[in-house]
Amino acid sequence: MKRIMLFILAALLTAALFYPAEARNIRKNDRPVIKAPGKTDLKIDDKASGFYKAASVDTYTIVRYDFETLDWQGWERVDNTADPDTFFHVDDFSGLESYGRLEAIEGSQSIWCGSRPADDYYMCSWAAAPGYGNNWEQYLVSEEVVFEGSLHLDYHLVYDCEGAGYDNLYIEYENDDGSWTKLATYGGIGDVIDSYSVDSASVGGSTRFRFYFSSDGAWSDEDGLWPTEGAAVIDSITVYDTNGYFNYEDFESASVGDHSIGIWQAETGPAFGRYSGLREGMRILDGDPCNENLNTQIVFFEGSTEPADERYPGLYVTPFCLNGGGTEAPCQNESVYSPEIVMTKYSSNNDEIQDMTIPAGDQNDFAGVILKFDMYVDLPLDNLVFHTWAVRNIKDGCPHSWMDLGYRYYYLSPGYSTFGHTIGDLLTSPNDTLVINLNVIDMCDAWGGTYGSCTYHTPAPWFDNVMVQRYDISGPQWRYRMLDLFQDNFPPNADYTGFVRADAANDIAGPAATERIDPGDSITVHVTSPLAGGIAGVDANGYENGAGTAEVYMHFKVYDAISGAVPADFAASVDTGDVGAYPLPTPTSEPDGWFKVQGRNAVVGENPEKVADEYMFDLNDAIFTYNHVIEYYFSATDKNAETSYLPSNALEGGSFEWECLPSQPTVYSILYVDDFDHRGSWDGQVDNYMTPALNTVSATGYDRYDVNAPTSGVGNGLASRINVDKLSMFYEKIIWDSGDLP
Questions:
Q1: Mean per-residue pLDDT over the chain, rounded
Q2: What DSSP element (H or E) covers 687?
Q3: Strands 415-422 and 17-18
Q4: Cα distances (Å, whole numbers) of residue 91 to 111, 116, 192, 234
Q5: Average pLDDT of span 255-279
Q6: CB 495: neighbour CB atoms within 10 A?
């Protein structure tokens, strides 16, 4: 599974409106998990962007769904384990001549697991068709063959898929108990002629072969993060034994589009089924302050047969995975979709009826969009049952890709809360039609035994009172993750000499790197301006028009941790780092000792692919030494010439900060580790109390190491930046506070 990533992005909008806090990017379907806030995790953040600028009278309630009484109000139930179509099909590749691997292998036709560009509801939103999509489970299966001796399978295969266990083609045969055994696995790019055989005695005298393609939830042609000419083209399939059985298939006699020919049949993977429904009058012992919720709520356990425990009288738990005692696929992955929401209209009665039109002037100013919903949660990490949410615009009848923060949410304790998410930066335009997706997914097939035991389920989650609002905000809108920003660090040498690296908190080591940590060399932020048509110097797809054209900047200042003075030689030596073969611009001077450096489109992969609306920044790893403190903030200007900042109070002194420790060798005897950083407040609720306390009791002062995104699991704790045997050179005591985190 892919490397863990994590972030913290949370805020308190009203007394009851919570944001999730931190995320762990354990990738299956490209979703990390987020530990959602507990009662101490309120993030009162007037410094980060994306919150209300206007009074409540300047906020439109676009729509609100309360599902009363037992009324879906136009919402749709969707089983995400069901493939959207059968994609193994015979093709002559006419019109695809410009794609080098999309051609018949032999003759004029081959069978292809892939899809052409199309304008239907599923394909019109693809970023890079032709190719393959996310969450595919596609099979080309032979008839059962009775044989003696050995049964042989020969084929010619051209493949192009992500590989590495994420998106792969498998060759398998069926055992006499109905299970399947892998003969070969293909990933990456290749053109092979292969042959395999099966012994009759090992399968009870008969078997079937199959070609099985599986993709996870991201990095494909569908989202454009991994463009291919795939997934697989197959031809010249021969099945024969040593006793006279012979079958050869070259697909020449089939018609284009056929899903079966001869002994071969295309199939999709098994679907788990739908368990969503509407319930009212559900009781929660010691959970609901009123002891009973009579309102209609969306649940995901209708049809489940296992009763819940005594806390939930008369209720059932969400269904377990169907195989492996509840730990193997297929597993529940189900959504409910809202009806299409007209974003230029609003509800005067605060309900599902959009009876009023937003004035034209406000449509061009109200770029802020927020999604709210009430939710009952009882989703401990050990269960590996998560909830997610997503939104997408629909324009000219074509749905765009689902957009979210990319996480799966779990919770430390059960209870009701109202959750809110600013989503303006996720939309192509706040004026385009919107659809909401609320999802429940069981990850036991991917993470069972690793991140949780999957022993228990609960009836949760339940959703209610789903609301969309627009509010008055203009200019670029920001999204960031603390794990993608700079992490406090130490010098590399035992005598505290040497330059301190400017690294991100996140670990970017590959999935095979289980015994090392590779801190990210560059930091990233996300910014866009939907109403203005994007950021200045950026095209309609969110990419720079040319290197260094995006009007996105990081501003930074360096000073001595003890005296506050700017290092005398710093201005002469300042320069940015170098991300591989992707150099970043050189900073320019600003007043009062500040510097400004322009961002570049963030890139991923060995052959760098740009990420739309995501910008990276790097600093030279050969200029910072111990006792340097670096403050920094970001700015961006959109195509309407409006500029905004992250944090939003940057011009009033607000900034992010990282420090090169120790502040001064032998001066401070105490190191305070804030393992609750940015949780509950801008500095972190623990720090709000610890800093004044330490200032009072410590006569000589102290150093502080902030753990960005402390529940991340990305390996950015103290031990990741300094060996324990070096600590005693600088400190006599360590005060470590992780708040209420376990």
A1: 86
A2: helix 685-697
A3: parallel
A4: 6, 10, 19, 11
A5: 96
A6: 9
Q: Strand, helix or coil at 30? A: coil
516 class by beta-carbon count within 10 Å (0-12 exposed, 13-18 middle, 19+ buried): exposed
What number of other Cβ atoms are within 10 A of residue 282's Cβ?
21
Q: For residue 627, what are its two tokens?
A: 């006792």
Contact 72, 352 (CB under 8 A): no
- Quote the pLDDT of residue 18: 27
Provide the total of helices (H) and of strands (E) in the chain, helices listed first. Answer: 6, 46
Cα dihedral across residues 217, 218, 224, 228: positive or negative: negative
**8 Å CB contact between 340 and 393:** no
**pTM higher than 0.90, yes or no?**
no
- Helices of type H across 335-376: 360-363
Q: How far apart (Å, rounded) are the C-alpha atoms in residues 310 and 287?
A: 12
β-pair partners for 674: 706, 737
Closest CA to 683 of 739, 644, 619, 620: 739
Closest CA to 424 of 75, 63, 51: 51
Furthest-apart CA atoms within the chain: distance in Å: 92
Closest CA to 679 of 14, 37, 34, 15: 37
| Residues facing residue 527 across a β-bridge | 478
pLDDT digits (tens, 9 = 90+) for 138-157: 999 999 999 999 999 999 99
Which range scores top for mean pLDDT: 43-52, 202-211, 570-579? 202-211
Question: What are residue 134's DSSP bridge partners?
Answer: none
Question: Which residue in the block uniquely carries the two structure tokens 């991923």?
Answer: 604
pLDDT digits (tens, 9 = 90+) for 169-197: 999 999 999 999 999 999 999 999 999 99
Give the H or E element holding residue 544: none
Report whether 169 contacts 138 (CB < 8 A): no
Going from the C-alpha of 73 to that of each of 64, 67, 68, 296, 462, the distances in angstroms are 10, 6, 8, 12, 16
**Pick from 253, 269, 247: which is nearest to 87 by CA?**
269
Rounded distance between C-alpha atoms, residue 559 and residue 592, angstroms:
11
Hey, what are 265's tokens? 């049949």
Angle among Cα 130, 134, 135 to the nearest 5 degrees reads: 135
- Positions of E strands within 215-315: 232-241, 246-249, 260-261, 264-268, 277-279, 297-299
Is residue 411 left, alpha or beta, with left meaning phi > 0 and alpha meaning psi from -120 to 50? beta
